[in-house]
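From the methods appendix. Each design record in this collection lists the tokenized structure first, followed by the designed amino acid sequence. Records were kept in a plain field format so they could be parsed without special tools. The example shown here is representative of the layout used throughout.

RECORD:
FOLD TOKENS (302 positions):
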């Protein structure tokens, strides 16, 4: 019996052989590499990847598809199927496990047709294991890929752009039309390549503070920095960094956001030190700085 795509899992199965060929051509797969496929579906990419002689781990949440995959690839010794939620999966454990078994500790190459409804949190979950990931290739909504790759000054530039570009080099490879899937989604898709930086492109003292500043700055896109960041950084201190406080967040580069976050970190560090008779004012400002500490977890990606 054929598998019926399930909306709750965001299932849209790739079936266009030309697109599959284009994806494989862009990957530069080499034998014995360690690959991870997220959401293999019915194995449209799984089979040609295995034909390249790689070692492959696949993570699939749908138990019915796990059964289908186990039957389809039961004679593939280089394939390991994990019935698991990718959002909770420990990707670094795959590298540790192979090393413990006497194999290579080579970094993972990751690929996936990600469900649209969890694509952003899943990418950030993967970045927790960025130290053991060589690169990632994902099928996403084109709108999301455009935002990931957007440059300052673009209307598509936002929190997702800044944070993903802090962690990775980003590249839009090509678009994928709706008719390439079954069922066909209502939006255009695209393939993005993400390559984790060996060294961060900018100096950031505390990534949590960077995320906080970026989230606050983009929480109301039409506001200027002096208004959107007024609870965190005074206008005069923004200007002292040679950053124009009358600009909107979409005009601010990753480097400038890094400098703003480092300033915030330094200011908080000062307030943590004993302040003698001025402790009252310092404590009031510290409470103000921490008012929006959970902004990043409560707002949607922009």
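DESIGN:
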């Amino acid at each position: 019996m054929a598998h019926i795509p399930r909306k709750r899992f965001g299932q849209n199965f790739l079936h266009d052989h030309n697109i599959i060929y284009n994806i494989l051509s862009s990957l530069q797969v080499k034998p014995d590499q360690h690959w991870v496929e997220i959401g293999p579906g019915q194995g449209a990419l799984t089979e040609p990847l295995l034909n390249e002689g790689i070692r492959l781990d696949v993570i699939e949440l749908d138990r019915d598809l796990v059964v289908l995959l186990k039957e389809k690839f039961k004679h593939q010794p280089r394939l390991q199927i994990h019935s698991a939620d990718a959002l909770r999966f420990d990707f670094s454990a795959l590298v540790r496990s192979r090393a413990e078994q006497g194999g290579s500790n080579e970094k993972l190459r990751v690929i996936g047709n990600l469900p649209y409804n969890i694509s952003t949190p899943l990418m950030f979950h993967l970045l927790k294991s960025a130290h053991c990931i060589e690169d990632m290739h994902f099928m996403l909504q084109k709108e999301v890929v455009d935002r990931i790759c957007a440059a300052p000054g673009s209307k598509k530039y936002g929190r997702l752009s800044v944070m993903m570009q802090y962690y990775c080099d980003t590249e839009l490879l090509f678009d994928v039309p709706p008719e390439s899937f079954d069922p066909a989604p209502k939006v255009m898709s695209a393939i993005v390549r993400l390559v984790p930086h060996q060294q961060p492109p900018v100096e950031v003292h505390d990534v949590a503070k960077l995320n906080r500043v970026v989230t606050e700055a983009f929480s109301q896109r039409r506001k200027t920095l002096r208004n959107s960041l007024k609870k965190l950084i005074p206008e005069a201190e923004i200007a002292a960094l040679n950053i124009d406080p009358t600009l909107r967040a979409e005009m601010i580069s990753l480097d400038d956001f890094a400098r703003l976050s480092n300033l915030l970190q330094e200011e908080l560090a000062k307030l943590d030190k004993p302040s003698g008779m001025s402790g009252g004012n310092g404590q009031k400002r510290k409470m103000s700085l921490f008012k929006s500490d959970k902004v990043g977890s409560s707002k949607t990606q922009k």
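APPENDIX NOTE: Residues 120 and 144 are 8 Å apart (CA to CA).
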